[in-house]
Structures are given as C-alpha cells and as structure tokens.
Here is the input.
Amino acid sequence: MRIMISRPSALSPGLILVAAASLFTQASMLSCSTADAVLQEEAGPPGAEVALAAYSTSQRAPQRAQELYEQQCATCHGSQGMGDGPAAYLLSPSPRDFSSGRFRLVSTVNGVPTHDDVVATLKRGMPGSAMPPWDWMSAEDIDLLADHVLDLAFEGQVTNLLAWAVEQDEEMSEQQARDLVHSRLTPGELVDVGTAAPSDPVTLQAGRRLYMKWCAPCHGADGTGSGVEEQWNDNGSPTNPRDFTAGIFKGGTSHTDLVRRLLAGMPGSPMPAASLEDDSEAALIAAYIQSMITPGSMQKVQQRRQSLTVGKASGALPREPGDAAWSDAPSSYLALMPLWWRDLRVEGVLFQAQHDGSEVAVRLSWEDPAQDEELLGQPLFSDAAALQLSAEADPPIFAMGATDQPVEIGLWKAAWERDREYVRDIEDHLPNTMLDNRGELPAPLHDLFVTARAVGNRQAAAARPTPAEALSAEGLGTLAPLGPVQSTWNAKATWADGYWDVVFTRSLAATAQGEVALSPGTTVNVAFAVWDGAAGDRDGQKSISIWHQLEIAR
Here is the structure.
C-alpha cells in the first residue's frame, strides 16, 4: 500500500500534512494494537531498524555530512532541509522542501528516491533551475550529502506526521510515526527501462502516435510545452510543461533518463507516471522526444566546473575589447543560469584572460539583443556583469560568500560606462521635464545639499572615471565597497551587433584589504554573473555561473 505524505497548500488551513493517505487513515480508525499490526505488516518484524539505518548518517561520518550540507546546501534548502534557506526567496523554481518527502527525479515504481537517485541529482544538478552540479566533489562526500538529504527527509516527515496527529487529536507514538514514514520512504522496485529504440523513421512515427496520446495534451503537439496554459505543483507553486525542443531536461536526455520520467513520473509535480499498456512503448516515446531536442542545447545550459587559464601576454596587455591580442587568447564557454528561471535569458559567456606580470585582463562576451544603459527612471535597469573571486580552498555556494569567507567582486554596469564622460542626471534622460530650480539660484548649490554624494555614496558620485566597482561580501545582504573610493578594478566595454564585450582589469597584487592576490602560479576560484536590463534584472535577479578554477600562468 502506498502512503503519500505532503505539505498542504494554502487552501488547506489547519493541516500540516495531507495525512498518510489510506494506510494512516485506516490505522487511525482502529485501536492502537490493530494499528500496530497494520504498521508491522508494512514495516517488517518487531524491532527491525532497517528504516532508521537506511536514512541515517550515524554510520557514515555525520559531522562531515552536516558540514558539507551547511556549506553547499543550506543557503538554499535551509538548515533543516525545508526549502527556507536565506537565498530561497531569490530562486524560482524554489528549493526543494525535503520534509515533503517528494523528490522529482526517481527511478522506482513507487516514486521514492533511492540513494543513487539523490547522488545522480547532486552530480548532475537540475538544468532549468538554480540547482548546480557537484560532480567535482569526491564520491565519498557526495555519498555523505545524499545520506544527509535522505535523513532530513525522514526526520522532516516524522516531525510533520506527529504534528498532524496532534492537530487531528490522534494518538501516535514517535515509533509509530517512524515506522509509518519508513514504509512511505522505502524505495520500491526499479523501473524497467528496457532497451533504447532506434531513431529510424518507422520507429519515430510509432513514437509520435504514442506521444500524441500520452504527452501532447500538456507538452503540445510540437513539444514546446504549449498544451496547457497553467499547471501547479503539489505545494501550490506554478509550473509549466517542459519545452522539449529547448533541450533543457532536469533529469537528463538519455534513454534511461526519459523512460524513468515516463514510468515513474516526477513526484510533487503535474507529471504523472504513465500507465502504458506495454512498458516497451516508453522506449518509442523516449526516442521521439529525443528527436525533438535542438542539437547542442543541453550542452549550452549544463553547468560544469572548468579550469580557466590566465596566460602570459606576449606583448602589451589588451585593455580594450577590440584589441588584436585577444585573438591569441583561448576562449572558454561558461554556462549561466538565471536564479529566477526564464526561457529568454543570457545562456552563457565566453571567457578569455591574459596577464603581463603586474596586471590581469579578463574579457567576457555574451549575446544581448538590447543595449540597456539607462538607470534614470524607476522601471529602467542597466545591463551589467561581474566576476567574483575567492581564495578559499572550498568556497561557499555561489550566493555571495559567507561569514568569515569573504569574496571579492568586480562589477561593471553599462550605465556607468555611459557616465564616463560626465555623470548624467534626470535632465539628460528627460530634457523637457519641469524642474523647480529653473532660473537663477540665489546662491551656489552646496555639495551637502546632495546628501548621498556628501556621505560618499558611490551610486551618487560626481564623477565616474571607471565604470567598474570593487566590492566585497560575506553572505547575502552584506555587499559593500572594497577599498578606497577610487576603484581597484577598471573596465572597458563595447556593444555591437547584439553582443557585449567587456574587459575587466586589475593588478595581480592585492592592493586593498579584502582583495584576492593573483600571483603567477596560483589558483583561485572565480564565478561570473550577468544582468539583462531589458528583463528587469537587478540586485539578486541575475544569471550566474558556478565556481570555476582560475589558474594564473607563470
């Protein structure tokens, strides 16, 4: 008997769970002894401890598992795994609430993830969301993280079930709750994925007929996700059917990946497990879906940690985007992911870098059809880019450093590039606006009257010799200027034919407190961010990369 436990939506006040479905409903209507018998039938013989052992890190370095989780996961998922970390409000789709017991990517017939399912998700990440991959982590550490995630799911379900029982005035011991949750979170048999079907026209035609029956009502006849206008996850959050042609699949695009999604569904989402007459039909559908994917699309969105080399310039350091020396510098494509996911986005940047022994130059290039360089208006936002440096051997997750683990940030804005000649004001943006200071002023305008400028707010600077700014952060909400008023970073940018090219420059040596030294022969961590002004990007609404390794050549 399958037990489904989940958080209620806002439309179910007073309930902490949509309780234990049929099994708990039956158990709660019986005497305690009868309920124990029902639970024993599901959980095994008396005294069996398989449930707790299977979802416990006690046998496998619990302190290390906790440290890994706090460093890599808690910023988004929260310390108890309830999807309420400090960065959660910035993310869409929202971080998974492990206490719901629902995991999207599963390989079992009952929709409960195996340890290997969680490991696979950690290694791959979830393209189409802000969930990055941890394939760079050791196998032992990934195993510990997977154990800890499953442990959080188990303990969260127990806590929720006991709270539900209290609210419903039901008698339930902690052991009964644990036995029941064990039954719910015990993985079932693996989905039989069979063998992959060929991609010949006959097979694809058969696959399309099945696709039109099982998939098109949601995903559309053309696979673009146009079948329905609105869909909702179990937790009440909005979602959309996958656009297969875009090639962005949370769980991968292989035959095995797609058949598992078809036959196991995606628990907690509107994607059900298909009740095919013959499971072999899943291979035909999978082959047809694969034929709809735009070639190369998954590679463009898949995050992979890379080693980026800053080579020694053979001549003068290139400081302009159009300098010929850039033709000699190798390029690396770095995928970006919007924290608040959208289909129209900056997919990635091209990275190049050189140094001359005293300074470093980093060139970023990306496609942006609109040149957004205006800030003088409430609905106007500037294109921008930033790179983030960390000297930590194991830096915190991408969200702006952490306490006692500062990051250095070099930020460029297109609007600041425009302000190089002189700092524009509202009269430049709206030359015909009515101002209350027209005519002769009785006395010169005192600098103190512009209060932001008087206290040194860089956003109100009277002059902007460089469109770049040096910043530091030790976690969300801690962004602050780094060093003196004169930025230690410089930048030069051009926009042409729908592309931005931005060159950042900085001394290799750390010249201000909080800067990361970039001495030849060293390796530091680097991450990147891009803001698209036309999309309303600003502050925490942006597209980011994961951490990469920056190697400064000798």
The first helix runs from residue 21 to 29. The CA atoms of residues 126 and 250 lie 4 Å apart. The mean pLDDT is 87.
